[in-house]
Write a structure and sequence with these properties.
Blueprint lengths: L25 H10 L7 E5 L5 H8 L4 E5 L3 H13 L6 E4 L3 H7 L5 E6 L11 H4 L3 E12 L8 H5 L4 E8 L2 E7 L8
Parallel strand pairs: 1-2, 1-4, 2-3, 4-5
Antiparallel strand pairs: 5-7, 6-7
Length: 188
Amino acid sequence: MKITGGTLRGREIIVNSRADLRPSQSRVREAIFNIIPELNDKLIMDLFAGTGILGIEALSRGAHYVDFVEKNPQGSKDLHTVLSKLQIDSKADVYCDRVETVLTRYKAQKYDVVFLDPPYRQSIESILPLLEHVLVDDGLIVYLHSAHPSSAISPETYQSNNLFLSDQRKYGDTVVDFITHNINTSIK
């Protein structure tokens, strides 16, 4: 898997194979980073990080700092190794814990962008109320999920959590929801 843009463009990330990993495809990552606003000096959170590729792409493209959350102990260890090999470990923390626990414990921290890339069968509705509290006023959530209709979250569900679906794109079997914290925030 290769980094698609920024200062680390072309660098390869080698990760141990795990059945629970579903890294974002390069064309999906490229599309996401062509859509979201400038990342320079932004604070990012990468939830359900897995390989960490979304957060690593953000660091490569100028993000100030990324907090990765990956509950799998081996996955967290592998992510530490990758960050160290890329020499970007000083710009990141890796939390080996459940997403809900981290969002509750560290809700005083506010993020500009939150990447949300859970396993396709996992519902995120229980963490939506927690996301509102970790975003800056004009913050953005980038949520990757299955194109299967059962994975979709209605705009009304987002709105009941003070979040707003501002854009949605489909790339093969993956749908990307761009969710803002403020109804007047534009992602382009």
